[in-house]
Amino acid sequence: MPNIKNMALQGLYRLGVPAILRRLPAPENSMTVLAYHAVTDDPSYALPGIRVTPRLFAQQIAHLVQHYTVVDLADALEQHAQGRPLPPRAVAITFDDGYLDNYTDAFGVLKAHRACATIFTTVDPVLDGGRFWVSWLYEVLLSERPAPALIDEVFGVRPEAGTEAAFNAISGVLNYCPRAEREVLLDRFAERLDPGATPPRMLNVAQMREMQAGGIRFGSHTLSHPILANIDHEERQLELRRSRARLIEALDRDVPLIAYPNGRAIPRNFDASVMADCRAAGYRAAVTSRRGPVTSGADAFAIPRMGVSQMGGIARFAVTLERFRAAARRSGKNGVGA
Q1: Class of the CATH-defined domain 2-129+201-330
Q2: Rg, the chain, Cα only
Q3: Contact present, 115 and 252 (Cβ < 8 Å)
Q4: Helix or strand or coil: residue 203?
Q5: pLDDT tens-digit profile of 212-239?
Q6: Which of 17, 23, 53, 22 lies closest to 36 in space, CA to CA?
Q7: From residue 252, how far is each of 30, 95, 246, 295 by CA, in Å?
Q8: What is the DSSP string of 228-296?
Q9: pLDDT for the residue 57
């Protein structure tokens, strides 16, 4: 079925359907927020669903600059909150996690096209140079292929065959652990596997400062990438407030935005109490992994986005952008489109 769908999207793209749809108006105060993660040819540390090749990324950014208005997310959300109309075909570019490839493979493309973006960094691994548990786990599973019995022994789950299945099963456990417990389990797993050191995968402060000088903004993705709705209030406060404070100190720049960790596969990764805590921590808006365009009435602490991956190529990207604009037209003034 996915191949049939991609073939249909390719057909629509070749027929010029996205170009025809772009001529249709969308509400003036609507925009689409794109959610990238890794931009790399290396499949070893990021799942296919959150990876885009550098070649495809360059095609996508060229497409955006040619046919849309790329806006700074923080500025656009402030403009939106004030009820001022956004530019036609407004699109904001964001990245989650803070991968090194955002600097090595994406930044040059953005600079060449004079396109701004916001990178939501998982603060502790980025600023301290430690492991980012999400990419580390995937990389170790892919390279070491541990026996199901070992996974069961350490994490208490026995996944189906395959690296992705193992990652999903283990992360399903770790996502619901307090941070200290998660680190203990990962350390125990590392001791049993002895995988050796993995290459650096995350940005550092010098790179972030260079990117900031080149028009890139940074936001928080918490300290350690937990599900904020599933940790206690004290730990949540630490994740929200400390991550913002550390970024402000490192970059000497305000941090008004946060992205809630974990995607649509998690049924409840934020709730009203999380949104209230973000507001109290000094953030002015938060982006989610819920799909949809930003339209009139959108809650500033539940901003939807369009996830981007290499699946379906430029055809899927172009068609999906217009699907989001169509959702904005249907939504009108009734809030966020689906």
Answers
A1: alpha beta
A2: 20
A3: no
A4: coil
A5: 999 999 999 999 999 999 899 999 999 9
A6: 53
A7: 31, 20, 10, 32
A8: GGGS-HHHHHIIIIIHHHHHHHHHTS---EEE-SS-TTSTTS--HHHHHHHHHTT-SEEEEEEES-B-T
A9: 98
**Is the confidence at residue 1, as pLDDT, over 90?**
no
Helices 179-193 and 133-144, axial angle in degrees (round to 10): 20
218, two tokens: 């940074």
User: Which stretches of the chain are DSSP H helices?
Assistant: 2-14, 17-22, 54-67, 73-81, 101, 107-112, 123-128, 133-144, 148-155, 163-174, 179-193, 205-213, 233-237, 243-251, 272-280, 313-331
Which phi and psi angles does 206 have, rounded to 5°?
-60, -45
State the pTM of this model: 0.93
Contacts of 1 (CB under 8 A, 6+ apart): none
Report helix, strand or coil for 62. helix
pLDDT exceeds cutoff 80 at 8? no
Q: What is the pLDDT of residue 333?
A: 47
Name the DSSP letter for residue 299: -
Specify the pLDDT at position 331: 80
Per the DSSP assignment, residues forming a β-bridge with 51 are 38
Each domain of the chain, given as residue ranges in start order, spans: 2-129+201-330, 133-193
